[in-house]
Amino acid sequence: MTAADTALALGSGDVEVLGTPRALALAEAATVAAAAGTLTDGQTTVGTRVELDHVAPSPLGATVRAEAFLVVSLLVDEAVFANSMPRVLSAAVS
After folding, report:
1. What is the residue range of 81's domain?
2. What's the rounded Cα separation, in Å, for the pair 74 and 20?
3. CA distance linking residue 41 with residue 93, whole number of Å
């Protein structure tokens, strides 16, 4: 995590910890990557709803990773977990 990822830099707060907009962007990028293998040429996905719990701060220099897992039902639901070892920082389901 760099200074460009902070709440201060992103305008979502006044501290140098991971900004929630960056956590959401990481989650969305993970869902795009997870869905990519299931799409045919010309297909894409779009987000229509997001729930995000950003529950702990990550300081500058922390390693933050987002993982997405597809759960297929009548609609495709995506579950994303972003973490900075050893604790989960945020969870989103769309």
Report:
1. 3-93
2. 30
3. 26
- pLDDT of 17 reads 95
Cα separation of 43 and 56, whole Å? 35
Sorted by sequence, the CB contacts under 8 Å of residue 74 that are 6+ apart come out as none
How many domains does the chain contain in total? Answer: 1
Residue 9 near residue 20 (C-beta atoms within 8 A): no
User: DSSP class of residue 9?
Assistant: H
* Grouped pLDDT means (10 residues each) for the chain, 94 residues: 96 95 90 84 82 87 85 57 52 52
- Whichever domain contains 58, its CATH number is 3.10.129.10
